[in-house]
Amino acid sequence: MASDSPDDEEESEAEAAFLRVRAAPIPGTRPMSPFELLHAWRRAVEDVEALYDGSLYEYLDLLGCREMLARLGEPGFEAYPEDALEAIQELDERFEAATSEVDHPLAHWQVGDREAPRWWKRIPKVFGARFARDLQSHGIFT
User: Fold this and answer.
1) How many CB atoms lie within 10 A of CB 138?
2) How far apart are CA 63 and CA 105, in angstroms?
3) How far is it, in rounded angstroms, from Cα 132 to Cα 142?
4) Contact between residue 122 and residue 92 where contact means Cβ atoms under 8 Å apart
5) How far apart are the C-alpha atoms of 128 and 16, rounded to whole Å?
6) Does residue 67 form part of some domain?
7) How big, in percent rounded to 5, are the helix, strand and coil portions of the chain?
8) Dihedral, 101, 123, 45, 52 alpha carbons, nearest 10
9) CA 85 from centroid of its chain's CA atoms
10) Domain total of the chain
11) How far apart are CA 68 and CA 136, in angstroms?
12) Which pLDDT tens digit goes with each residue over 74-127?
């Protein structure tokens, strides 16, 4: 039986907003729905858990998905369904387990003057030669 309580109406409006919203694109990217971002973050975590074999620049793109998910959590975009928040948290935990912390954010232009979110300061524990060369050429890893 459907209920017409204000809470039900507010919840359905929040769900509708979540489905409608498109992430504010990071320069050079196309807008993505929250579900596309969550799927992209899941694929990124799976790549990092295996053997990350892409370039540093491709890795930064993967981290951009997590950045956009965080931006959707800012005021005005607080309509994440509970199961989506749980999925993001579970993926973040898997990402942290598969990565190591570095001293500085990998993408200063993404962070600006604010404190760098933890994902910008992490690299895969297991990676291929191309990623290693990129890290060395940027002085991130020797």
Assistant:
1) 10
2) 11
3) 9
4) no
5) 42
6) yes
7) 55, 5, 35
8) -150
9) 12
10) 1
11) 27
12) 655 556 677 788 888 999 999 999 999 998 888 765 555 667 788 999 999 999
DSSP track, 62-79: HHHHHHHHHHHTSTT---
Helix (H, G, I), strand (E, B) or coil at 35: helix
Residue 106 belongs to a domain: yes
Two tokens, residue 80: 């994440």
Residue 15 included in any domain: no
Please indicate, yes or no, if residue 13 is contained in any of the structural domains.
Answer: no
- Residue-number span of the structural domain to which 128 is assigned: 30-137
3-state secondary structure of 26: coil
Indicate the pLDDT class of residue 131, thresholds 50, 70 and 90.
very high
* Cα gap 136→32, rounded to integer Å: 32
Q: Is the pLDDT of residue 21 over 50?
A: no
CA 142 to CA 133: how far, in whole Å?
9
Residue 64 pLDDT: 87
Summarised one tens digit per residue, pLDDT across range 36-58 is: 888 999 999 999 999 999 999 99
Work out the number of other CB atoms within 10 angstroms of the CB of residue 7.
Answer: 8
